[in-house]
């Protein structure tokens, strides 16, 4: 245990899935050819007027409701004034005094000392709407090392900023928070969360204080984090830097640091601005936003089942293990696929677990190997359901089913047509199988002798012989029954 307690807070910026930008009609396509989706509004031309994107408010409200935040039904936009090359207006339209949401929490899961999973609530300070800035590209990204270029496609893209309270006490808690938040945003379908494209960005603040001290230490913010690994590594490096400073008797200075992945260190960027440095004042070109009950009701009706609720339902209603339920609710698309497959079957005992195994092991295994998502699956839920049904009614064995599934995945065809074409129907004719069992027993006298001498494992060799002769098509249960009957004579 170290001398210091770590205190971590997060600011998360999520670009919203709207067709147009926050205050103009330009397409929300930041990755298009540079500067092809711009207009006088998002470029900050004098005399241009912003018009609020209603879809962005719907998506923001959906998020605020999921967090259980207090909703300011009368909120305002403000100008946050600062100069930076990728901010063409020299101010950003944002919210501070009356944000859309205040308070709320995100529940994260952490392993307890007794091996169980413990829930911890990370409080939220606020959730507010704003617009994104443009994107600068510097020498290392360009052919000319001395050049800098700016792409304004991203300028004005709808952005949701989620500001946590300083409630996390370890890098592991921060990682769980990031994963949980990302999963929630994907389930809510408010952002595609593509960090590699800057669609989801994390900024971490970290401070240290002696254990038992209530007062927070000096906070340092870390920027330039383009992956969750970068967040984890930068936090560990910054904690080590602050620990060294405090141990040597020096003080920690409040500032913004950049993460240098090459050196594995945090480097000073600038001294941290205070809120008054931004000279916030109400945006004069936008009227206050008023959200009535009808609007809220409409958004509530669009809310999906959230990951933890769905995971708990899979366990309580379907009897899945915590591991299986967690895996199948990793994304909303996987959970939807699983339930759609299950709906195509009779709710017989074991169906939930059987389908779980096929989705988790066979389907996701093949998709991951080919770097595809479940949405891109060539096997539809109803097709997988049909395959499971054919196993259940004895048409094919589980071993043959894997061969059929591989063919389905490669071709997109139904199981029945593949089975008929390849003659893979399970052999369940007792007369035919009896003859095969006799031949296998006659051909394996040593295995028969061992089995009768008490070596149960030798029975498996005999079963394997029958399955080999029938090319895996024999009904395993019937084979076991017939072999034991003949061996007992």
Strand portion: 15-25%
The number of distinct β-strands equals: 17
Gross morphology is elongated
Instruction: Report the helical percentage.
Output: 25-40%
- Annotation field: number of helices: 15
Distance between the termini: 69 Å
Low-confidence sequence ranges: none
Number of domains: 3
Structural class, from secondary structure content? Answer: alpha+beta
Sheet having the most strands: 10 strands, mixed
Nearest-integer average pLDDT: 92
What does this structure look like?
By secondary structure, the chain is of the alpha+beta class. The chain folds into three domains: 4-297, no CATH class; 305-422, no CATH class; 430-487, Arc Repressor Mutant, subunit A (Orthogonal Bundle). It is 39% helix and 19% strand. The chain contains 15 helices and 17 strands. The strands form four sheets. Strands 1, 2, 6, 7, 8, 11, 12, 13, 14 and 15 form a ten-stranded mixed beta sheet that branches. Strands 5-4-16 form a three-stranded antiparallel beta sheet, with no helix packed on it. It starts with a strand and ends with a helix. 33% of the residues are buried. The model has no long low-confidence stretch (mean pLDDT 92).
């Amino acid at each position: 245990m170290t001398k210091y307690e770590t205190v971590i807070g997060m600011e998360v910026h999520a670009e919203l899935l709207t067709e147009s930008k926050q205050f103009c009609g330009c397409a929300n396509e930041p990755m298009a050819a540079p500067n092809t989706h711009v207009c006088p509004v998002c470029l900050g031309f004098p005399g241009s007027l912003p018009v609020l994107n209603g879809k962005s408010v719907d998506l923001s409200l959906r998020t605020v409701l999921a967090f259980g935040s207090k909703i300011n039904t009368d909120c305002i936009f403000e100008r946050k004034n600062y100069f930076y090359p990728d901010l063409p207006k020299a101010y950003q339209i944002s919210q501070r005094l009356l944000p859309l949401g205040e308070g709320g929490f995100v529940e994260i899961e952490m392993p307890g000392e007794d091996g169980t999973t413990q829930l911890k609530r990370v409080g939220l300070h606020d959730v507010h709407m704003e617009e994104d800035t443009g994107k600068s590209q510097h020498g290392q990204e360009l052919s000319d090392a001395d050049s800098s270029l700016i792409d304004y496609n991203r300028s004005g893209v709808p952005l949701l900023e989620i500001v946590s309270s300083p409630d996390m006490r370890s890098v592991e808690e921060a990682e769980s928070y990031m994963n949980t938040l990302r999963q929630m945003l994907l389930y809510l379908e408010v952002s595609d969360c593509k960090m590699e494209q800057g669609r989801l960005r994390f900024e971490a603040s970290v401070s240290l204080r002696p254990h038992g001290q209530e007062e927070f230490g000096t906070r340092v913010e870390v920027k330039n984090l383009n992956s969750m690994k970068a967040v984890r590594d930068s936090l560990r490096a910054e904690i080590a830097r602050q620990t060294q400073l405090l141990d040597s008797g020096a003080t920690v200075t409040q500032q913004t640091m950049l993460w240098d992945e090459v050196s594995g260190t945090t480097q000073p960027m600038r001294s941290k601005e205070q809120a008054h440095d931004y000279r916030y004042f109400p945006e004069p070109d936008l009227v206050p936003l008023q959200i009535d009950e009808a609007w809220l009701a409409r958004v509530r009706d669009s809310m999906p089942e959230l990951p933890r609720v769905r995971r708990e339902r899979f366990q309580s209603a379907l009897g899945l293990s915590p591991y299986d339920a967690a895996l199948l609710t990793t994304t909303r698309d996987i959970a939807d696929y699983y339930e759609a497959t299950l709906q195509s079957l009779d709710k017989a005992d074991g169906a939930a677990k059987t389908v779980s195994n096929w989705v988790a092991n066979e389907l996701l295994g093949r998709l991951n190997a080919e770097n595809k998502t479940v949405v891109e699956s060539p096997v539809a839920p109803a097709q997988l359901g049909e395959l499971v049904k054919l196993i259940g009614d004895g048409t094919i064995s589980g071993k043959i089913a894997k061969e059929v599934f591989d063919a389905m995945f490669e071709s997109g065809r139904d199981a029945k047509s593949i089975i008929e074409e390849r003659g893979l129907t399970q052999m369940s004719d007792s007369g035919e199988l009896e003859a095969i069992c006799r031949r296998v027993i006659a051909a394996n006298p040593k295995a028969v002798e061992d089995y009768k001498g008490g070596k149960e494992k030798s029975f498996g060799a005999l079963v394997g012989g029958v399955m080999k002769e029938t090319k895996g098509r024999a009904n395993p249960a019937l084979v076991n029954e017939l072999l034991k009957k003949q061996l007992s004579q």
